[in-house]
Amino acid sequence: MSSEQTTASDEADEPTPVTTGAESVVRALENAGVEHLFGVQGGAIMPIYDALYDSEMTHLTMAHEQGAVHAADAYGAVDGDPGICLATSGPGATNLVTGIADADMDSDPVVALTGQVPTDFVGSDAFQETDTTGVTRPITKENYFADDPDSVGDTVGEAFAMANRGRQGPTLVDLPKDVSNGETDREPGPPRTPPTYVPAETADERAVGRAADALQQADRPVILAGGGVIRAEASEQLGEFAIEHEIPVVTTMPGIGAFPEDHELSLEWGGMHGTGYANMALTMTDCMFAVGTRFDDRLTGGVETFAPDAEIIHVDIDPAEISKNVEADFGLVGDARAVIKQFAAAMDRSPDTADWCERCTDWKQEYPLDYHIEEDAPVKPQFVVEAVDAATDDDTVVTTGVGQHQMWACQYWTFTQPRTWISSHGLGTMGYGVPAAIGARVAADDDQTVVCFDGDGSFLMTCQELTVAAREQMDITVFVLNNQFIGMVRQWQDGFFEGRRMASEYDWMPKFDAVAEAFGAEGFTIDDYDDVEGTIEEALDYEGPSVVDVRIAPEEDVFPMVPSGGDNGLFALRGEHL
Amino acid sequence: MSREESEPPESGLLGPDPENRERPVGRRNSQGIRIDPETEATREPRRTTITALVANEPGVLSKVTGLFSRRQYNIESLTVGTTQNPDWSRITVVVEEPDPNIDQIEKQLDKLVPVIHTRELEREAVERELVLVKMDADEPDKVHAITEMYEGRTLDAGPRTITVELTGREQKIDDALDAFEQFGVREIARTGRTALARGETKTSIAPERLK
């Protein structure tokens, strides 16, 4: 590093010209407005890290690359702009794979930068070599092998733009060490997508007109809001549209937060563990206005019985989603916000929904989300979720791992704002919660609370990331809903495998409060109802990372439940229904 | 939410059991298509040609074939070659799938960043396939006669083998191969179908900004 470079920060207006591929990569990230990076050092990525030494961007060293990519993913989901993660070649890059696949399934904007062995060694099975672009091709929106120091900066810019524009998703740039080290004086331009990539903005007007006609003639219309609504910043438009025309709103699980769950038109979320009333409405509707959803099987159950009476209006930025899983009667390709505006303009009257809304309200009475408390028995997880919700503000960001705890968090927390529910939906990645809380913490406003609900099994998969939270004194609170089971598996084994609990019982678990303390976080334990409120308050008040080991009722199940591939309208409310 | 409020209900949660709930009258099929019980029909697979104009860059073919295998679509044949513009290649794929899948294949192909334009060709498109057939040379006159009949050419003739070339639509090639079968076919190399739209119709349309 030359002495001129070390003084570069004093001359903020005049950035030092780039001299290497690595510096050009860093400049490209700066051009894109990147402020935070998540990663782990290593041999082949060292030139990039060296160039970061002089950058104003802050880098968070994670304990494991999987932590880096989940943190970047959650960062992107909270912030809206792509999260950036770095890893070295070989094992570094392969450790990113789960998180990249996760981001791909949820359309989360992530840019992964991986080191690679020098180009001369590529293909020779060199030390720490993996065909990273080959491995990640099916799980990235687009990936790149950078082969030229002159263009590597623009390639990183393109990767950023591709992750961000149209349907968001993960992109990856593989950076051979000689390309990073290579000389160049080419300054990268602003991030740009390639000319072959042109996502539609507005939908065809006539198609919108026909679809709007169908919606206003419907007797039992329902809006289905997916994660795409949040990604497109269309929550406000969607809310206004629903309220103006009095159409009940069901969200998908990734769409939670797209419409306030405390509004009377909200039926909360539908699908496998969604509310009974959402699933009744999805089943009985005669016209579904579905925005930014890909009709995942966890939402639809068996497609034969999904919204069987409904004409489906499907709005999506990705044309390939239209009629992929459920055939759309009206396919509208475009940006959710723009299309909802077009739709609002095309509606010259409202459907008559008074009776339908009343039926939806009746279903809320008939099938409430409920659980019951037995005195002198272990704490019910649902109660804990509700208690944390009550103790925090509306803009609190909730992250989770994957399993029963995720469903309870989703069911018993009342989400009212977009970008506050951050979870692993499509891939269902256990271990997502703690690193996601770290990424969310970096992206969230300082006065926003960040909590993580995790399960004992899920927490164990990535709890090493607590070191990062402790080192950075990040204010996050992790509630481990500890039932000493891989609970969701145990529930399925009980329901569908005659109670043969193969490999789902964790009959020995570490003391999670002590684990927290060993990592430098504050540890708490909740054993019974009398501890709940006080301990939650203490943990939330603690400035820094804290972990609450909540010893919950071990055999509590998640209901309602639509068995896999089943009929949404026949959801089970209790075990005897399965 | 308070603990006092949540007295256990008599039999778990409230609401009618699944069998006593309101039910819709409609149904969809396994492809997600709403069906009219009177005219219920499944869509049978059909064989068709999909053409894609793609940027001529490394990895395109792997992206295309990866897409097919990842989504479990079978490729009957696939041909690739450059076009009048050296920056572009044309990929011609033959698939046998039901309609919703054909539609999905086109959309998924279009989604790939290096793909400039993709569509399904109509039936009357100009389609050709090239085949090389190597067979025993015991009856050279007969082989020659059949080669002539199918407008083929003899590329190599020796005392023990004859290799001929044929081009034509798939059906013609299949027929010719059947006819050659009697001579003892040793090896066959088929290129797979390549095709262009007929007449003035454009096979692929590249947007102005890319020209």
UniProtKB/TrEMBL annotation, chain A:
Q: In which pathway does it act?
A: Amino-acid biosynthesis; L-isoleucine biosynthesis; L-isoleucine from 2-oxobutanoate: step 1/4; Amino-acid biosynthesis; L-valine biosynthesis; L-valine from pyruvate: step 1/4
Please give the catalytic activity noted in the UniProt record: 2 pyruvate + H(+) = (2S)-2-acetolactate + CO2
Q: Where is this region: Disordered?
A: 1-21, 165-198
The Thiamine pyrophosphate enzyme N-terminal TPP-binding domain covers: 20-133
Could you say which residues form the signal peptide?
Answer: none
Cofactor(s) demanded: Mg(2+); thiamine diphosphate
- What does the record's cofactor remark say about binding? Binds 1 Mg(2+) ion per subunit.
Q: EC number(s) per UniProt? A: 2.2.1.6
Q: Which part of the chain is the Thiamine pyrophosphate enzyme central domain?
A: 210-342
Q: Name one GO biological process term.
A: isoleucine biosynthetic process
Positions of the Thiamine pyrophosphate enzyme TPP-binding domain: 401-550
GO MF annotation, one = thiamine pyrophosphate binding
GO CC term, one of those recorded = acetolactate synthase complex
Provide the alphabetized UniProt keywords. Answer: Amino-acid biosynthesis, Branched-chain amino acid biosynthesis, Magnesium, Metal-binding, Thiamine pyrophosphate, Transferase
* One protein family per Pfam: TPP_enzyme_C
User: Of which family is this protein a member?
Assistant: Belongs to the TPP enzyme family.
Q: What is the protein name given in its UniProt record? A: Acetolactate synthase
Species this protein is from: Halosegnis longus
- Identify the coding gene: ilvB
From TrEMBL, chain B:
Q: What is this protein called?
A: Acetolactate synthase small subunit
| Residue span, ACT domain | 49-126
Q: What Enzyme Commission number(s) appear in the record?
A: 2.2.1.6
Q: Which UniProt keywords apply?
A: Amino-acid biosynthesis, Branched-chain amino acid biosynthesis, Transferase
**InterPro entries per the record?**
Acetalactate_synth_ssu, Acetolactate_synth/TF_NikR_C, Acetolactate_synth_ssu_C, ACT-like_dom_sf, ACT_dom, AHAS_ACT, AHAS_small-like_ACT
UniProt-listed PROSITE patterns: ACT
GO terms for MF: acetolactate synthase activity; acetolactate synthase regulator activity
* UniProt pathway: Amino-acid biosynthesis; L-isoleucine biosynthesis; L-isoleucine from 2-oxobutanoate: step 1/4; Amino-acid biosynthesis; L-valine biosynthesis; L-valine from pyruvate: step 1/4
The UniProt family comment states:
Belongs to the acetolactate synthase small subunit family.
- Per its UniProt entry, which superkingdom is the organism in? Archaea
Q: Where is the composition biased (Basic and acidic residues)?
A: 35-47
Transferase is among the record's keywords: yes
Entry keyword Kinase: no
Identify the GO cellular component terms for this protein: cytosol
Q: Provide the residue span(s) of the region labelled Disordered.
A: 1-47
Task: Cite a single GO BP annotation.
Answer: L-valine biosynthetic process
